[in-house]
Amino acid sequence: MIRALSALTFTSRQDIRGGSGPAQSAEYLRAGEMEGVLAAGRTVLAPGTSIGEHLHADTEEIYLVLEGRGQGVLDGVRFPVGPGDLFLCKAGHRHGILNDSDAPMTFMGLMTRG
Question: How many CA atoms lie within 13 A of 87 on its CB side?
Answer without folding.
Answer: 19
